[in-house]
């Protein structure tokens, strides 16, 4: 099978590409640059020159593929709302090319969209279109595609990590270094779910092979790690003090991260594990965090 992969040079996309190739797939990866093309070719991926905002080129690539995996996303979180809205367009463009076929389109979202509130872990079979998290734009585009006859499914990501990078925890580390203190908000009992990069990449392959229209899957190995434990780990390894901040202090200290540090983003993957026979095997977030900071 020939799979078109967006975000192929990125943190998650490059891991997905490696898993696809190991499983015998032919992978075509989107890139904007010669440097990206060289990186893809070295990894065994066929480069496809284009831009995530060029709808025509995305449609052409999707039309010539046996399936599409969309991992690309602008991770400038200081413009998070705009970037979430922007993600609608590539999904719509590729969906148009796949409509009326059984060729799968796998898109990416976040586990927060599965939360019903009251700090209960998010679940796969829940989606609230009125959820305040702007990442819902991707799932709404996916629902529209499903209604138009596209075989679309969703991978919801938690904090994806390895010893080099840990999702939103990475900017928390930078903030601690800059401020000289590792902080958490309020009581620090809100929880973030997490998954190792290798396990997340495998989940995309399992979802592709299952090819079940309308499915949502959670890339979650650890249901929830408290923000206080994350902050204390950062403080211990960086050898900086750990501080509890009240609500009025959070915006100034964390900046754009403020909206996330007090959110509960715990999530279950019980349905995912059962439906896809997916069993996470990678190290935990705290273990990878300690390796990164010790290095």
The helical percent reads: 40-55%
Query: Class by helix and strand content?
Result: alpha/beta
Count of distinct strands: 12
Radius of gyration: 19 Å
Mean pLDDT: 94
List the uncertain runs. none
Q: Kindly, what is the distance between the CA atoms of the first and last residues, rounded to a whole number of angstroms? A: 40 Å
In spatial order, strands of the major sheet run 3-2-1-4-5-6-10
Number of helices: 13
Which band does the percent of strand residues land in? 15-25%
> Describe the biggest sheet?
7 strands, parallel
Order of helices and strands: EHEHEHEHHEHEEHEEHEEHEHHHH
Q: Shape, please?
A: globular
Précis, in short:
The protein is an alpha/beta fold and 295 residues long.
How would you portray this structure in words?
The chain has 295 residues and is α/β, with parallel strands linked by helices. The chain has 13 helices and twelve strands. It has helices at residues 11-22, 34-42, 55-63, 80-86, 88-98, 136-147, 169-179, 197-210, 227-238, 250-254, 258-261, 270-276, 285-294, and strands at 2-6, 26-31, 46-49, 67-70, 104-110, 151-157, 159-161, 182-185, 191-196, 216-219, 222-226, 242-245. A seven-stranded parallel β-sheet has the order 3-2-1-4-5-6-10, sandwiched between helices. A three-stranded mixed β-sheet has the order 7-9-11. The longest helix has 14 residues, at 197-210. The model has no long low-confidence stretch (mean pLDDT 94).
